[in-house]
Specification:
CATH superfamily: Vaccinia Virus protein VP39
Radius of gyration: 17 Å
Number of strands: 9
CATH architecture: 3-Layer(aba) Sandwich
């Protein structure tokens, strides 16, 4: 009999099924994932700045991740994994929904990108040694947040960089992201569960429990004039860098 402590499952089957149903529409910028297409450039701007600062990359280089390994957890159909590959990384993507992995692999192949995709629970896959670990809008969907973040910590190489984004649990996010965006059809119904949103303080403490240090979060806000943009306002959504140790 094995004495190994079982790893808590992080996947919620209903969440995986929900996002898997969106797979074939994922790459349509006017489809059900339209909001992600609008959000992705904002996240990529933050990610590029964080990469340059952490790894000392030359700002003008087109491939600041050349020679580095990147892991995108909760990769969906590859909306972030593909830009990371174009930045020079050797990219792996993990997602709980088989249909997402199917669409992601086909889209990468069609674009001539060599990305390794795996379907499963990141807590079960034993992934290690990644210079960059990203997980965008995922932690609010998992069954066990502490186990999920511990698995991300295990995947992160010494000296590596992690970047996370997630909605904040505020009155504003409940009104605009759940009641507003979903009721107006901007986001598929059932995408958000407000009580599962994570505040920056809660995320800080969860990361500390996994031996990780959270940087200063930056908000992703919306206004009629600027659209989605990086901001000091954390009320709706925020993105943050994470490193190992103090």
């Amino acid at each position: 009999m094995s004495n190994a402590t079982p790893i808590p499952a992080t996947i919620r089957p209903d969440e995986a099924a929900h996002f898997g149903r969106l797979a074939d529409d994922w790459w349509d910028p006017a489809g059900s994932s339209a909001m992600l297409h609008r959000l992705n450039p904002v996240r990529l701007g933050f990610i590029r700045s964080a990469i340059d600062a952490h790894f000392g990359a030359e700002r003008r280089t087109m491939r600041p991740l050349a020679g580095r390994r990147a892991l995108d957890v909760g990769c969906g159909a590859g909306l972030l994994a593909e830009p990371l590959a174009r930045l020079g990384a050797e990219v792996s993507g993990v997602d709980a929904a088989p249909d997402n992995i199917r669409v992601a692999a086909a889209h990468a192949q069609a674009g001539g990108l060599a990305i390794t995709y795996r379907c499963g629970d990141v807590a079960d896959l034993g992934l290690t040694g990644f210079d960059l670990v990203t997980s965008m809008e995922v932690v609010e969907h998992v069954a066990d947040k502490a186990a999920f973040l511990a698995a991300l910590a295990q995947a992160l190489a010494p000296g590596g960089l992690m970047i996370l984004s997630t909605p904040n649990r505020t009155a504003a996010s409940r009104l605009l992201l759940v009641e507003g965006a979903e009721r107006l059809g901007m986001v598929p119904r059932g995408t958000h569960h407000w009580h599962d949103f994570v505040t920056p303080i809660e995320l800080h403490d969860l990361l500390a429990g996994a031996g990780l240090t959270m940087g200063n979060p930056q908000g992703i806000a919306w206004s009629p004039t600027a659209g989605l943009h990086l901001s000091d306002n954390l009320a709706l959504n925020y993105i943050v860098t994470v490193t190992r140790g103090a």
